[in-house]
Structure formats: structure tokens, C-alpha cells
Design a protein that fits this description.
The protein contains 49 helices and seven strands. The longest helix has 18 residues. Helix content is 64%, strand content 4%. A hairpin with a 2-residue loop joins strand 6 and strand 7. Helix 34 runs parallel beside helix 37 and helix 47 packs across helix 48. With 936 residues, it is mostly helical. InterPro entries: AAA_16 (IPR041664), P-loop_NTPase (IPR027417), Sig_transdc_resp-reg_C-effctor (IPR016032), Tscrpt_reg_LuxR_C (IPR000792), WH-like_DNA-bd_sf (IPR036388). Keywords: ATP-binding, Nucleotide-binding. It comes from Streptomyces hygroscopicus.
Length: 936
């Protein structure tokens, strides 16, 4: 039965009528497995409506992809056997060379290595000319099933043909499975793009399912039973018939029993029924099914026969039996009809049988020269293997997985390789180092353990030191003492960098960087690092990655202690990034410290493009490395005052780090903490305080950030004394550690404000004076402007107004627009109502809205002295932004909005980001909540 395919049949019929008058076309028949593409394709010749229609058909198969022109041969074979005798003797005899190319077995299209040689233009045009001659006598219907499996030469010819259908009276219909990709070959996409229409058979409706039930059982099905079948199969004809076949032969039973049994026929139950049926089959049938389950996509007739240990006669008989059982898609195409069949076969095999077959399949594929990852996939299903080549195959597969951004897969391959008992010495050490390299992004503890196991097996100091550097460094947290001890050990063994050359010198410099950064919470170690920076001179060498990494660590020490001015830190940081190739893959290093230095120096305007280029090179999606890239973006956006955008990056980084609370968990929480403080988001602050970071990290940076959040929480709840005590304790801890930078942890301005509110003006002024001195020495505009605003608020009067105006002027040179908005708000409050105050408030509101700080926007509007009604936030949206926001409010994804408007998804992202800024919301969820209150 072919149900509910009238629309598709009608479109093909229309195309045939158009072809009859010279308007040829290509139609693509697409859909998921089991939707009935092949059944529909088989029905199309019935649309002929007359004897003049010629039908050419071909069925592609994975096992035939290596047969050059296999599909073309099928098409032209059906054409050749049906042509009139006079045309055969005339036109085709003149093209004998062409037909010999298509049908001959003399290897004309194969090179010495057995690879396909591209067809000449003469052959391509010759084959089209034959179709043109035939179509002159009547329209052609060319049917190709399973386009995704077509061999490369045939695919090229099809691509050639569909671009040159003009002049033919032909309709080409190709069936293509959804979700198929052909890596490295764009031809399939070219054919798909050339289609005039894409026909997608829909799942069967409830009414159609009732008809199938009637056909199956000879009587209409009950309404409830039909609905259950529809629910179970989701309208997929293959799954539906599988369920109904399992119910057939049980006779008429009450509806309740039918429904219950239908629900029991879910894939797991169907698998068991199929497995039971398989167990009852003769050995050759079970052996072939098992071989097909093990080989999967690599199943070829000769491989299947060898793995199943069947001679040619038994192999063909078993293949026919599997097809008659309804387990294969087609008798000559050995692949299972559905994944449930594969599951059934696997469940019918014993553990020992499964291991034996996978081990034998690995050997077959290896000796056939198949890619390492295909051989490794078979080895992974075997507990142990005696093949001498197994370890190298697994290493090669792991290397491919790492290049493709799949470190967990690579680690699984390498752990399996370590089970080989023949490995010893440096061979085992190299394998352990490879495994540690794969693990460092998602399991640092395992990485350290495997490096520690590898080092004693290495024979030279340089190799041991290089192995230790495979352990990912910590950025803001404390490295484990065991790692520090290991680094000291290999550094002493290697010797100082000044006594070394080449690679050994670079390794020594990187070791020095790691060890110096390990003391970044020790004031004595920080002072020594700053002294080392002085020794390097005003223009330290930055030619190698090792020199840049050491410079980044020493620069970080100078930044934390504020013992070098911000301008000097920014200049050296800029030199490092100028020489650091953002487009290359970097071994995890301490270079992110450069970004922190630029943030503290209030010099981030030129770094966004570098970070964007760096992030595009990340290949380990979903790992700590990817989270660190997002954190850097969040830090830069926060330094510019773009809190809403920073929140998106920071929250994504936190999500990536949730599974493994390691370095990325610390730095992503730090970034999110800064966002919570900027946005004054109490809910976000409480979520961070209740998270795992507070319990598991001893990092001074994170501890201080969490204390800031606690102080914010106390302040918002009116517990000012408690907030002040927390801030002062935090300040003492930072000072004791040598962290004197006034940008990263601005505790004095906040503490001074609380002291003033609690009535201790003298203590507040003392802190304000100290902060002003510190910020003037450091020289970053954001810190100096903030300190001037603080002192202005404490002084008041004309002197305070003078300092406040100076604060605004200084902050105009800062990258942080949020701090400027705060200063403008304070200035507007102090000014007399009038034109200047109105202008100041408008500028402050625009900046706060652009930064995505809704609370600040509300305060600005609340004190606007102009008396005029503030414009609603949606008034600032462009027409396109309003349209995009409206579609998002209907629940559409970015891609769906892009499809609706006919633009790219990147354009939608830009419009949404702009709307977030203007509306003062942090993301999609807040936008959707705001939409009902907006006039849109």
C-alpha cells in the first residue's frame, strides 16, 4: 500500500507533463529511514499515462561505491536493452567506444592503484547525447534510489547531467536519506542544490494508519488501538509495519489487550522478537547476520563472507534468507532494514562470539588498508588483542580524533592501547604522554597521574621536562603541590635556560614560567618575579612562544602588585599579542594572563578581534579549553562595561565546566561574579554563592570574588556592618598576598561608601585618599575615575563637583562605559535642573542601556529631573530588531527566525545582541519575559 503520497505523485506527474514539452527538471525525494522513499520511487512509473514514457532506474548501495560507474551502468543497461533494433545498429554502434567505457570490464576507468579515473568531457557529453536521442522519441523518467551511496564517477555524471537537462525531455528523481554527509566530496550537495523541488513524504496520519491496520488484519482497527500505533511509530511506515507484524496471527482480542500488546511492541521488545527469530535460523544465516552487525558500514560481500566463514554458495543462500525474513533493505544490498534489527542481532550473540568477530574484523580491515579509526573501532570492542599492529593503529586513531576535536574519544583509544602488555620503556611512556595530552582538557587529575607514570621511563632530562609541561597550567588557582614538586624536579634536572640552547632552552623557559606563576599568591615570589621582569629589560625578547609565556607570567606579577604602571603593562601585553599567532593551535599555556593584564590596565579596545580569531581556532568543543576561551571574551566585555553580553559568555563557560570543576570552573565563576556585581543581580549572586566553587577552590581570586558577592548580598539586605566587615577582611587578605592592583578587586571604594553610610566619615575619607593614591600610581582610567568619583561624593560642595567633573573626563578615556554611566548619573544628580542635566541623564541612560544594566537604567530614569516622560525602551529598536524580537517571543530559534526572514543566522545574532543592549536585558529569557509589557 502507498498511502498519503498523492501530493508527491502529483508533483512528479506535473514534472512529466512539463518534460513532454521540453521543460526538464530534477526532483529530490528526501526523508528519514523508513519513511517510504523507495516504495514511492517504485510507484512513479505508473504515472506514465502512455507507452511512450521510457523509465531508467538504478539502485545504489554502500557496497557498490567502489564499482566505478555502477549506477550509470544500471541506468544505461535498462536503456540499452529496450532500444529499437535499428537505433542499436545505427547510433549506438557508432558510439562503441563509449559503451565499452560504460559496460566493459577492461579497467578503462581504473588507475594502477585501482582508483577511479575521472571521465573525460567526451564521455560525459557522449552519454548525455544518447539520452537526448532517446528522449526525442518520448519523455524519460530517470530514477536513482539512495543517492548517498552512488559511486563517485556516477555521481559526477549525474551532477553533469542535472545541470544540462535543457534540451532533454526528462524528469530525474533521486531519493536521498536525511542527515547524510559525504566528507570531502561536494558533488552530492551540487546535485541536491540543483533540484527544482524537494519532495518530503510526511509521516502517516492517524487515518492512514487505520487503513494499514485494516489491510494487515482484514478489519478496521479500534480508534484507541490506532492512536496507540500512531504514537508508537510516530507515523513511520517501517516502524508501524514492524509493530503490526508482531501482532499479526494472534486473532481477534479485546481492544484493551490489543492496546497493551501494541505498547509492548516498542523497539526493545521488537528487538527481542527479532533476536528470537534469529536464534531459530540455521548457522549460516546467524553467522552472516552477526558479521553484518559487526562490520556495519564496512560490510562488503567478500568481507562478510570471510568474517562469517561462509563459502560463496552458503553466503548467497544466507543472504537470500535474511532478505526473506525482512531483515535486509534489499537482497543484493546487505544492510539491515533498521537499527532495531542491528540491536536484535547483537543481543543474540554471546560475549565470546562478539569479541572473536570484532577481533577478526579488525584484522580484515587492517590488512585491507582501511583507515585507522575504522580498525580501532573494532579493537575497542575487544578486551585484549594479540595483533602486533594494534597499538599503533589505536594511536593513529587517537591522533585523528584529537585533530577532529574529540579528546574523549582519543583518550578511550589510548587507554585501550595501554592494555597491551608488550609495551615497556619509552614506548609506554610516549603512550602515557599521548593519553595525558588528550585528558588535560577534561580530566587534569588523570593527566597528572599519567605524566608522573611516564617521566621515570624517559631517558633524557629534556624529554622528562617536556612531558611535565603537558600538564595544563592553572591560571588563577593554586597548582596542586604534587605538580609543583614535579616541575621543580624536572627543572633542576634540566638546568637553567641560560645554559641551554634551542628546544631545551624553550622548555626551561616554560618551566620557569610555570614555577614562577605557582607563587602568584606569595608576596615574596611576586616581588622576585617583578625583579626578573626588570632583568629582562625594557624590550624583552618575545620571539618564541616560551619567551612570550614567561613574559606573560612576569607581567602578571607586575600587574597584581601594581609595581609597574598600567601603560607599561598594556604596552608589553600588546607586544606579546602582536607576536602570538591567534590562528594557530596553541598548547595550553599561561598566555591568558595577558588578557587579564589588559583588563586591569583598562586597555581592551583592540583585543576583541584577536580573541575572536583565537576562539575560531578552538577545536575541543565542550571542554575546559573552550570554556577558557569564553571566559576571556567575558572578561573583556566586562572591562568594557558590556555586562549583558559578558553574562552570556560567562554562563556558557560555567556550563562547559560544570562536569569537571577544574581551572575552567574557577575562572568562569570569577567572570560570572563580576557580571553579577555589575548587574546588581541578587539572584545570580545567590546562585554563585550556593554553587560548588565556594566549597572546592582555595584560589585567592575566587575566594575574594565570593566575599564581594557576600558583601553585595548583605548590602542589599540592609546588613551594612556585616558587608563592611567582609570587605575589610577581604582587603587585608589581598594586601597580605601582595595583590595591590586597584582594578581587579576594588574593595576600598565600596568599603568607604559603607563607612560613610555607617557614620564613620574619617575612616571613609582615609580609604578614599589611599585609593586615589593607588589608582594614580597605577594609571588605569577606570580605577582613577572611580576613585575621583568616590572622593567627590565624600567631599561634596564645589570641591566635590570639581572632582566629579574630573572623574567624568577621566572615564571618557576608559573602555568601561558602565563606570562612565555611573559617574554621569552622579553628576546629573548634582547639577541644577536644566539643559546640561538633561543631556547628562540622556547620555547616562544611553550608556547604561547599551551595557545591558537595567537596574542602573531604572535609577537614571527615576532621578531624571527634566520632568519629561522617559521613552519606552522598545522605542530605540530598529524595525528589523523589533521583528526579530517578536519572532523570538513566539518561541522560534535563531535559525528558524533566519529562515523566516530569509537571512543568515549570524545576522539574527547581531540584531538580537543589539536589542539586548537597548532593552537592558541579559539574554533570550529576559527578552521573552519583557515582550508582553512592550508596545510591539
Amino acid at each position: 500500500m502507498l498511502l498519503e503520497r498523492e501530493a508527491e505523485l502529483a508533483q512528479v506527474a506535473d514534472a512529466l507533463r512539463a518534460a513532454a514539452v521540453g521543460d526538464s527538471s530534477l526532483l529530490l525525494l528526501a526523508g528519514p529511514v523508513g519513511v517510504g522513499r523507495t516504495a514511492l520511487l517504485q510507484q512513479l512509473p505508473a504515472l506514465a499515462g502512455g507507452a511512450e514514457l521510457r523509465v531508467l532506474r538504478a539502485n545504489a548501495a554502500p557496497m557498490e561505491q567502489d564499482f566505478a560507474l555502477g549506477v550509470v551502468r544500471q541506468l544505461f543497461d535498462s536503456l540499452l536493452t529496450g532500444v529499437p533494433e535499428e537505433l542499436r545498429a545505427g547510433r549506438l554502434s557508432a558510439e562503441s567506444g563509449l559503451w565499452r567505457t560504460v559496460f566493459g570490464d577492461d579497467g578503462l576507468l581504473l588507475d594502477e592503484a585501482g582508483g577511479a579515473v575521472p571521465m573525460s568531457e567526451e564521455v560525459l557529453y557522449g552519454l548525455r547525447s544518447v539520452l537526448a536521442d532517446v528522449s526525442a522519441d518520448g519523455p524519460l523518467l530517470i530514477l536513482v534510489d539512495d543517492l548517498q551511496w552512488v559511486d563517485a564517477p556516477s555521481l559526477r555524471w549525474l551532477a553533469f547531467l542535472v545541470k544540462r537537462l535543457h534540451g532533454l525531455r526528462a524528469v530525474v528523481v533521486c531519493a536521498l536519506r536525511d542527515g547524510y554527509r559525504r566528507p570531502g566530496d561536494p558533488t552530492l550537495r551540487e546535485i541536491a542544490d540543483a533540484a527544482r523541488r524537494v519532495l518530503r513524504p510526511a509521516p502517516l496520519s492517524l487515518g492512514a494508519i487505520k487503513e494499514v491496520i485494516h489491510e494487515q488484519f482484514g478489519a478496521p482497527g479500534d480508534e484507541e488501538f490506532a492512536r496507540v500505533c500512531h504514537e508508537i511509530s510516530a507515523g513511520n511506515p517501517l516502524l508501524l509495519t514492524s509493530v503490526l507484524s508482531g501482532l499479526a496471527g494472534n486473532g481477534h482480542r479485546p481492544v484493551a489487550e490489543q492496546v497493551e500488546e501494541a505498547r509492548a511492541q516498542r523497539p526493545a521488545q521488537l528487538r527481542e522478537r527479532l533476536a528470537g527469530s534469529l536464534r531459530a535460523q540455521p548457522r549460516p544465516v546467524r553467522a552472516l547476520a552477526a558479521a553484518l552487525a559487526v562490520l556495519g558500514d564496512q560490510a562488503e560481500p567478500d568481507l562478510l563472507a570471510r568474517l562469517a566463514r561462509l563459502d560463496p554458495v552458503d553466503f548467497l543462500a544466507a543472504l537470500r534468507d535474511l532478505h526473506q525474513l525482512g531483515l535486509l533493505a534489499a537482497e543484493k544490498k546487505p544492510r539491515f532494514l533498521h537499527r532495531v534489527v542491528q540491536d536484535a542481532v547483537e543481543s543474540s550473540m554471546t560475549v565470546a562470539e562478539r569479541e572473536r568477530l570484532h577481533d577478526a574484523a579488525a584484522a580484515l580491515l587492517y590488512h585491507r588498508g582501511r583507515p585507522a579509526e575504522l580498525v580501532a573501532a573494532q579493537l575497542m570492542a575487544v578486551t585484549t588483542s594479540d595483533h602486533p599492529w594494534a597499538v599503533e593503529v589505536l594511536r593513529a586513531a587517537a591522533d585523528t580524533a584529537l585533530r577532529c576535536g574529540a579528546p574523549r574519544t582519543a583518550a578511550r583509544y589510548l587507554r585501550r592501547a595501554l592494555l597491551d602488555g608488550s609495551l615497556a620503556g619509552e614506548g609506554r611512556a610516549r603512550l602515557l604522554i599521548d593519553l595525558a595530552t588528550a585528558e588535560r582538557g577534561f580530566d587534569p587529575a588523570a593527566c597528572e597521574r599519567h605524566i608522573s607514570q611516564a617521566i621515570p621511563l624517559l631517558t633524557t632530562a629534556r624529554l622528562r621536562a617536556a612531558a611535565a609541561l603537558r600538564i595544563s597550567p592553572t591560571i588563577v588557582g593554586q597548582a596542586p603541590p604534587s605538580v609543583i614538586d614535579l616541575l621543580h624536579q624536572v627543572a633542576e634536572d634540566l638546568g637553567p635556560a641560560d645554559a641551554l640552547e634551542g628546544t631545551a632552552r624553550d622548555v626551561a623557559l616554560r618551566l620557569e614560567a610555570r614555577l614562577r606563576h605557582a607563587g602568584h599568591e606569595d608576596p615574596a615570589e611576586l616581588a622576585a618575579a617583578v625583579e626578573r621582569l626588570t632583568e629582562l629589560g625594557a624590550e624583552p625578547a618575545l620571539d618564541t612562544a616560551a619567551e612570550r609565556e614567561l613574559a606573560a607570567v612576569l607581567l602578571n606579577a607586575a600587574m597584581l602588585t601594581a609595581r609597574r604602571p598600567a601603560a607599561e603593562v598594556a604596552r608589553l601585553a600588546g607586544r606579546i599579542l602582536e607576536r602570538e599567532p591567534a590562528t594557530s593551535e596553541q598548547v595550553p599555556s599561561l598566555l591568558p594572563l595577558v588578557v587579564i593584564g589588559l583588563v586591569a590596565a583598562d586597555s581592551v579596545r583592540g583585543i576583541s578581534s584577536w580573541l575572536s580569531m583565537e576562539q575560531r581556532t578552538r577545536r575541543q568543543g565542550g571542554t575546559v579549553v573552550e570554556a577558557l576561551a569564553d571566559v576571556q571574551q567575558a572578561m573583556v566585555l566586562s572591562a568594557r562595561g558590556r555586562a549583558a553580553q559578558a553574562r552570556e559568555y560567562a554562563e556558557r563557560a560555567v556550563r562547559l565546566a560544570e562536569v569537571h570543576w577544574q581551572e575552567a570552573g574557577v575562572v568562569s565563576t570569577l567572570a560570572l561574579t563580576g557580571v553579577a556585581l555589575d548587574l546588581e543581580d541578587l539572584a545570580l549572586a545567590e546562585r554563585i554563592l550556593d554553587g560548588p566553587g565556594r566549597r572546592r577552590s582555595s584560589s585567592l581570586a575566587l575566594t575574594s570574588a565570593l566575599q564581594f558577592l557576600k558583601a553585595a548580598q548583605d548590602t542589599l539586605h540592609g546588613r551594612r556592618a556585616g558587608a563592611l566587615e567582609t570587605l575589610l577582611a577581604c582587603g587585608r587578605q589581598l594586601e597580605a598576598s601582595g595583590w595591590r592592583n586597584p582594578v581587579l578587586f576594588a574593595w576600598r571604594p565600596w568599603a568607604a561608601t559603607l563607612q560613610q553610610r555607617l557614620g564613620d566619615s574619617c575612616a571613609a575619607m582615609a580609604l578614599a585618599e589611599e585609593e586615589l593614591v593607588r589608582t594614580a600610581e597605577w594609571g588605569a582610567p577606570v580605577a582613577l575615575g572611580r576613585a575621583l568619583r568616590l572622593k567627590a561624593g565624600l567631599l561634596g560642595g564645589d570641591q566635590g563637583m570639581k572632582l566629579l567633573r574630573e572623574s567624568v573626563d577621566v572615564l571618557r578615556a576608559s573602555a568601561n562605559e558602565l563606570e562612565l554611566a555611573r559617574a554621569l548619573l552622579q553628576l546629573g544628580k548634582w547639577l541644577r535642573p536644566g539643559a546640561e542635566a538633561d543631556a547628562v541623564f540622556r547620555e547616562a541612560a544611553a550608556l547604561a542601556s547599551a551595557c545591558g544594566a537595567p537596574r542602573l537604567v531604572e535609577r537614571i530614569r527615576g532621578v531624571d529631573g527634566s520632568g519629561a516622560a522617559a521613552a519606552p525602551p522598545e522605542a530605540s529598536l530598529t524595525r528589523t530588531e523589533r521583528t526579530v524580537a517578536s519572532l523570538v517571543g513566539r518561541g522560534l530559534t535563531n535559525q528558524e527566525v533566519a529562515d523566516e526572514l530569509g537571512v543568515g543566522s549570524r545576522a539574527i545574532e547581531k540584531h538580537l545582541t543589539s536589542a539586548y543592549r537597548k532593552l537592558g536585558v541579559s539574554g533570550r529569557r529576559e527578552l521573552i519575559k519583557l515582550l508582553p509589557r512592550m508596545d510591539m
